[in-house]
């Protein structure tokens, strides 16, 4: 059985947008790996009391793993804004395969997400100005550097979303 790749129905995305979309999952990865280490029992720079207060054991570990996986999946969805599968659903998708995706079905959630991510992570720039009593000094610095790339997630998603919208504008759904 041979399959043909989806045919691009709109202009190709600009090179900068493709690069930005590929950078987003890499920005989310360091904090996700750090959380997975916490779920596995590594204190990750927390003091013993800080790690206990964090609640990253038992069901807390399940939550931490789910949060890491969900964050990475959402980051990977940015690739849909520069890929053919973000314009036309792949044929293997049950019931809807091969249908063109309405631009607003991608632009609205991506725009809302970019605003939410920007509001969520921008204050993290001040991480070092806030005391962290449950962390060692080195642990606080390392955690700060692992989470700091998330500050760029919202603005990059916004830029890629604007590029997607411009390319898809005027294309009937």
Rg on CA atoms, Å: 19 Å
The helix content, as a percent range, equals 55-70%
- Oligomeric organization of the protein chains: single chain
Number of helices: 6
Q: pLDDT under 50 segments (min length 5)?
A: none
Elements, N to C (H/E): HHHHHH
Largest sheet: none
Question: In what range is the share of β-strand residues?
Answer: under 5%
Features:
mainly alpha, 55% helix, 0% strand, single chain, 173 residues
What does this entry show, briefly?
This protein has 173 residues and is mainly α. α1 runs antiparallel to α6 and α4 packs antiparallel against α6.
Question: How would you describe this protein?
Answer:
The chain has 173 residues and is an all-alpha fold. 55% of the residues lie in helices and 0% in strands. The two termini are 29 Å apart.
Fold topology:
Elements: H1 15-39, H2 48-54, H3 59-76, H4 103-121, H5 137-147, H6 153-168
């Amino acid at each position: 059985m041979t399959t043909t790749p989806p045919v691009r129905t709109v202009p190709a995305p600009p090179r900068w947008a493709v690069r930005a979309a590929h950078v987003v999952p890499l920005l989310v990865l360091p904090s996700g790996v750090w959380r997975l280490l916490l779920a596995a029992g590594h204190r990750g720079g927390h003091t013993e009391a800080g790690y206990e207060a964090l609640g990253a054991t038992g069901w807390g570990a399940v939550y931490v793993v789910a949060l890491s996986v969900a964050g990475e999946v959402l980051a990977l969805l940015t690739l849909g804004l520069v890929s053919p599968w973000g314009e036309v659903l792949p044929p293997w998708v049950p019931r809807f395969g091969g249908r063109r995706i309405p631009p607003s079905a991608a632009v609205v959630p991506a725009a809302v997400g970019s605003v939410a991510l920007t509001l969520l992570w921008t204050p993290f720039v001040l991480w070092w100005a806030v005391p962290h009593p449950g962390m060692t000094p080195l642990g606080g610095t390392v955690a700060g550097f692992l989470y700091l790339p998330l500050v760029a997630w919202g603005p990059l998603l916004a830029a890629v979303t604007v590029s997607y919208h411009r390319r898809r504008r005027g294309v009937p759904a």
